[in-house]
């Protein structure tokens, strides 16, 4: 049995399309707690973090959007994530857009440092999110968390990242949309990158097992960040940044079951769910199902579903 702490982070300041702030409520209404409890886990739902007042800040890049709000969210999410980890819980941070990971990964890094363990980051996403506030042309800060975790310059307004992650401890998995400046920056950092082309050639299981073996060999903590757009939009339409060619239902469940078998997950983000764009709640249900796979549910446990 795992003690799981659900932390609602209804932030939508990392991008401009409204709706992500309703993500935590959608997960609760669709029964995330009940589904995890049915697997034998102890669930403590800590509710939603209250929307904080903006923290005064400006950026030399005039396109950066909602920096004060995002900074304030990041500080609170980091503190809540680290507090849950310090209590021995596995935090599941319910987003919210992907800017919540500016805080959640920082919280994981702070706790890993306190425990004297390396932190590894598995980024399940269509995008590399390797912009900085200085390189972003859209100004949307949900495209910056990996760069922040890696210690790139340009985040002077943010709290210093507790221990920037060496590139070898970051794995970008399933990416298929990378901007020019991000591509140039990625070439300068030796992180593990499995884009969809590489996964098509090599399959899902071998690359992921290789990364998880490194985590195990170093007794690392593992923060997993799951973006809805990691999935193909045909099965998960409720996201504002759809990119064709994402993970299929079977591939996504395989990823999650392999993660469970590794017994290495210490924190999990569920991000970019926009219920306004969903179809009868099917994206929310799929994300809950994938979360259950990451926490012990097997394919044989899934009954046939009848849809009218």
Write the layout of secondary structure elements.
Layout: E1 3-9, H1 23-29, H2 32-38, E2 42-48, H3 67-86, E3 90-95, H4 100-115, E4 119-124, H5 145-149, E5 170-175, H6 180-187, E6 192-195, H7 196-202, H8 205-217, E7 221-227, H9 249-262, E8 265-271, H10 282-294
Parallel strand pairs: 1-2, 1-3, 3-8, 4-5, 4-7, 5-6, 7-8
Written description of the protein model:
By secondary structure, the protein is α/β, with parallel strands linked by helices. It is 36% helix and 16% strand. The chain has an 8-stranded parallel β-sheet with strand order 2-1-3-8-7-4-5-6, sandwiched between helices. α6 links the parallel β5 (170-175) and β6. α3 (67-86) runs parallel beside α4 and α9 packs parallel to α10 (282-294). The model has no long low-confidence stretch (mean pLDDT 96).
């Amino acid at each position: 049995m795992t003690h799981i702490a659900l932390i609602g982070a209804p932030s939508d300041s990392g991008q401009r399309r409204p709706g992500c702030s309703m993500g935590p409520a959608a997960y609760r209404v669709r029964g995330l707690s009940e589904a995890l409890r049915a697997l034998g886990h102890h669930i403590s739902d800590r509710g939603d973090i209250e929307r904080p007042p903006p923290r005064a800040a400006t950026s030399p890049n005039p396109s950066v959007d909602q920096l004060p709000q995002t900074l304030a969210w990041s500080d609170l999410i980091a503190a809540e994530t680290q507090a849950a980890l310090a209590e021995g819980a596995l935090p599941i941070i319910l987003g919210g857009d992907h800017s919540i990971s500016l805080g959640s990964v920082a919280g994981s890094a702070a706790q890993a440092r306190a425990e004297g363990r390396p932190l590894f980051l598995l980024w399940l996403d269509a995008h590399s999110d390797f912009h900085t506030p200085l390189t972003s042309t859209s100004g949307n800060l949900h495209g910056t968390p990996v760069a922040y975790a890696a210690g790139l310059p340009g985040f002077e307004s943010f709290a210093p990242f507790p221990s920037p992650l060496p590139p070898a401890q970051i794995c970008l998995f399933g990416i298929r949309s990378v901007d020019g400046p991000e591509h140039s920056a990625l070439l300068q950092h030796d992180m593990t990158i499995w884009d969809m082309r590489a996964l098509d050639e090599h399959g899902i299981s071998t690359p992921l097992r290789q990364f998880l073996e490194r985590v195990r060999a170093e007794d690392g903590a593992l923060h997993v960040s799951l973006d809805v757009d990691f999935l193909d939009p045909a099965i998960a339409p409720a996201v504002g940044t759809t990119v064709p060619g994402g993970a299929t239902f079977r591939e996504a469940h395989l990823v999650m079951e392999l993660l469970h078998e590794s017994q290495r997950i210490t924190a999990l983000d569920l991000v970019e769910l926009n219920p306004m764009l969903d179809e009868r709640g099917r994206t929310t249900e799929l994300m809950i199902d994938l979360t259950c796979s990451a926490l012990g549910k097997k394919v044989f446990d899934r009954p046939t579903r009848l849809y009218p």
